Amino acid sequence: MNIGDVSRLSGLPPKTIRYYEDIGLIKPLRSSNGYRAFRDKDLHKLNFLARARSLGFSIEDCRTLLELYEDQDRTSADVKKVAETHLERIDEKIRELKAMRETLNELVDACHGDHRPDCPILKGLSSPTQ
Amino acid sequence: MNIGDVSRLSGLPPKTIRYYEDIGLIKPLRSSNGYRAFRDKDLHKLNFLARARSLGFSIEDCRTLLELYEDQDRTSADVKKVAETHLERIDEKIRELKAMRETLNELVDACHGDHRPDCPILKGLSSPTQ
DNA sequence: GCTTGACCCTCCAGTTGCGGGAAGCCCCAT
DNA sequence: ATGGGGCTTCCCGCAACTGGAGGGTCAAGC
């Protein structure tokens, strides 16, 4: 399989796939013409990566998960730990965003949004958030 | 005021303040010794920026907001539009994160997390998300 | 046999919003 | 005069790619 094939099959752009090879996440073979030659194994890894990335795992998390994925002697506890840590980061991010949303929404609600220059949003940004 | 002073007063690191000057968000004067000389006006802007950034506005949004802040002929509708657009981006981000959280949480819950290698999390990542 | 177009390759630069660190002034206190 | 801050500029690096330049390869059609 060429890069275009695995790109279509995994949904990852060719650029991303080359990047994943650069940083050592996958190691496709090479054809005599210099083209990358992907095996099923490589495609499986790319699918794995695509799904892990879509769940928000960092590249380094993905590297760890891929290693665990390939290690027959892993323990599920190790995997769960990585996932739980990531879950907490997500929760933290959601909390942050909700706090932003809260404050921002108050400002937006207070703003009449007409042709006049008077604006509670700018006022809110220019004076301390109590 | 030197950069250290406005840094303490605004809570922004000196590096950030220099960066904001680099990209033209603030234009402090210069003392004869080459030090940046911040006026009250500059400090106000930095405080404004610190608050806008803490609400998640991008630098370009901040640039727009600062321009509106300084424009006596602005309309509050213009400001509100920027804020509402940002609010939608935040909501979108929250939705994405919640979806991730959902899926990830199911996987974590399904994983017993013991010494055995069998792991629903890895299984979930290696087979299509239905 | 030649051209065309779709692939593929590498390498370099840019993105966002800074942070780290080097190398070198400046200023004040001892 | 010497030490310790503080200030300056400059350049590199981060994450995770994306875009583009410049060039080789392959298969089909004429």
Which class best fits the helix and strand makeup of chain A?
A: mainly alpha
Can you give the helix content of chain A as a percent range? 55-70%
Ends distance of chain A: 60 Å
Could you say what the CATH topology of the largest domain in chain A is called? Answer: Multidrug-efflux Transporter Regulator, Chain: A, Domain 2
Poorly predicted spans of chain A: none
Strand content of chain A: under 5%
CATH class identity of the largest domain in chain A? Mainly Alpha
Outline of chain A: elongated
Average pLDDT value of chain A? Answer: 95
Order the strands across the largest sheet of chain A as they lie in space.
1-2
Q: What oligomeric arrangement do these chains adopt? A: homodimer
**What is the count of β-strands of chain A?**
2
The sequence of SSEs of chain A as H and E is HHEEHHHH
Largest sheet of chain A: 2 strands, antiparallel
Largest interface: A-B, 55 and 55 residues
Number of domain units of chain A: 2
Number of contiguous helices of chain A: 6
Give an overview in words:
Chain A has six helices and two strands, in the order H-H-E-E-H-H-H-H. The first copy, chain A, has helices spanning 3-10, 14-22, 40-54, 59-70, 76-110, 120-126; strands spanning 29-30, 36-37. A two-stranded antiparallel ribbon of chain A has the order 1-2. The first copy, chain A, has two domains: 1-72, Multidrug-efflux Transporter Regulator, Chain: A, Domain 2 (Orthogonal Bundle); 75-130. The model of chain A has no long low-confidence stretch (mean pLDDT 95). In chain A, a hairpin with a 5-residue loop joins strand 1 and strand 2 (36-37). Chain A is mainly α and 130 residues long. Chain A binds a DNA duplex (30 and 30 nucleotides) through residues 2-4, 13-16, 18-19, 23, 33-36, 53, 58-59.
